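Q: I'm writing up a methods section and want to include an example of the input and output format. Could you take the sequence below and give the corresponding predicted C-alpha cells, formatted cleanly so I can copy it straight into the document?
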Amino acid sequence: MVNPTTPASQDDIIQQEILKAAIRLYQKFGPNGFTMDDLANAAGRSRTSLYYYYKNRDEIYQAVMDKIAWDMAAEIRQAVAAVESLQDKIYAFCHTKLKASEQWKKVFSAMMSSMDAEEQSTHAEVMYSWHKKLIHYESMILNEILAGATLRKEMRAIPLGDQDTLVFLIYSSIRGFRREILELNDPHDLKAALHLLTDMVVKWLKN
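A: Here is the clean output for your methods example:
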C-alpha cells in the first residue's frame, strides 16, 4: 500500500487505479463476475499492465482487501492526528472507526450480494484474515496514542500487559456498539456511548 507520508511513485498510482476499479467491479459483479479485460478497461489500462503488477485474479482480490484495511486505518490515523488531547484522540479513533466501518460495510454487502454460496464461503475466510489485519492496524494506532500521551505526561505510565488489555477493550467495545446500536437498532445514543467510553478510559489512565 502507498504510505501517505511519502510521495507516490507512478507504479503506486497505477496500482491504486487498478484496485479502485476492481472495488467498483466487485460491488457490481462480485470477485468472479468480470474478466481481466473488463478490469483493464475499467482502470483505463492494458491487460498486460494488470499482469505486470498482479499475477492473477486471486492476487488482485487480496490486494483489494489489503487496500481496504489500509485505507480504513489511514482514515482513522488522519482523524487522530487532527486533534491534540488524549481524550480527543481516543474519541476520534472510536468515532472514525465506526464511520469507516459503516462506509465499507456497504461495499462488502454489495460484494456478497453478487456471490454464489461457494464464493461467499471463500470470502468469509478472506474476511477473517482481513479482520485480523485491521485489528493489527488499529492496535498500532491506539498504542501510538497511549505512547504519545505518556510522553506528554497526559497519563500515567501503565504496564504493557494492562495497555494491551486496554487496547483490546477499546476496539472490541466499538465493535459491540456497532453491532448493538447500528445493526440491531438498540435505542442507546451512539455518540453518548462513545463519549462515556472515552471518559471512562481517560479517567482510568489519569488515576
